[in-house]
Amino acid sequence: MSSVWIALVASAVLVGAFSGTLEAVTDASIESAKGAVTLALGLVGVMTFWLGMMRVLRDAGLLRTVARALEPLLVRLFPDVPRDHPAMSAMVMNIASNMLGLGNAATPFGIKAMVELERINPVPGVASNAMVLFLAINTSGVALAPLGVIALRASLGSENAAGIWIPTLIATSCSTAVAIVAAKALQRIVPMPSAAAAGARAVAAVDTPVDDTPEPAPASPLGTGIAVALALALVVALVLEISHGIAGGRPGGELVRAVLQAWLLPVLILAIAAYGLARRVNVYDAVVSGGREGFEVALRIIPFLVAILVAVGMFRASGALDLVIALLRPLTEPLGFPAEALPMALVRPLSGSGAYGILAETMQAHGPDSRVGLLVSTIQGSTETTFYVIAVYFGAAGVTRLRHAVAAGLLADVAGVIGATVAVNSLL
Questions:
Q1: CA distance 174 to 344
Q2: Are 345 and 52 within 8 A, CB to CB?
Q3: Could you tell me which of 98, 140, 103, 167 has the C-alpha nearest to residue 373?
Q4: Is the pTM of this model over 0.85?
Q5: Are 125 and 400 in contact (CB under 8 A)?
Q6: Interval 292-329: pLDDT, tens
């Protein structure tokens, strides 16, 4: 990561010096640092709340149940992680949240998983094979429902806002498959260093039992009754909303998207609370207890966020990104990848907010249903901000040596862009 960071900063300064944009680079370094802290502070609340909700599921025994159901797959993918370890549960919740497009909910689960993986890391501070694979799966952007992109397309007047769903599913499948293969293959080329330097600390980390996840508790008749009543009330409310939408003449696709966007997260929160109540969990105390851990972790990642976002901001402000685009244009256009989509492909691994801005600007300039608009939408929905994920997840766990994590993540990004290009050109 150090080499990547230095390369970004050095490129920004050199290009700025030759192109006369050093003043913009200076301004970008200051504004990016401010923006990074603002972003991190916003993440404090999200982390505090969602790790609290995860504690409810943990105390109710659901995480252990889910982990056991997925155990055959997880054991194959993560042979170095003990069965029934808390990291398994956190990884399951993270991947499930990402697949549903719940990015804010996925981040706390991902950070929790990385911290738990560090506890069993034979060489603390060095990314283990399990850590790299988990991060690669995250950076591949595995998603079943790119609701955010669909909502943006609809707001810009797309006639088929959800038309990117199949191409996005194809692209994200490609990126996830490549992420897994790349992580598994590269771990043989970049082996773990000797654990001798870790000494007693490594042995203690492996031998100390860390799984205090409760077994599923017996159901409370009263709590179960309340949960069922809440579920029935929500079903009635949902039917009424859909009926009103149909009566108002709203198109079916638009109505379904609106309902999903408005209902998914609040209903998930209530479902977790109701499940905890049914399983005799003191929900409020569990949310507070888990949230305390989330608060501490969110504050710990601020320096890592500042470092990576300042480097990316300087790189963009210097004009170095524009230079890279100009160099790549003759190579990509003959392959069916328009130059207008290059900024999206290059910025997406670096900056989530920057990529979102480019997505909106590109669709406004070319139209959301143009080939360029469809392509950038698919890229946004099927890839992830690789360096942000690396900085946040590894920063929270205190990992400083990344081994092959960057390479695996970037290979997944490239696969996602290729998959998006082929899918859009073939299907749309």
A1: 18
A2: no
A3: 167
A4: no
A5: yes
A6: 766 776 676 678 768 877 887 888 889 888 888 888 88
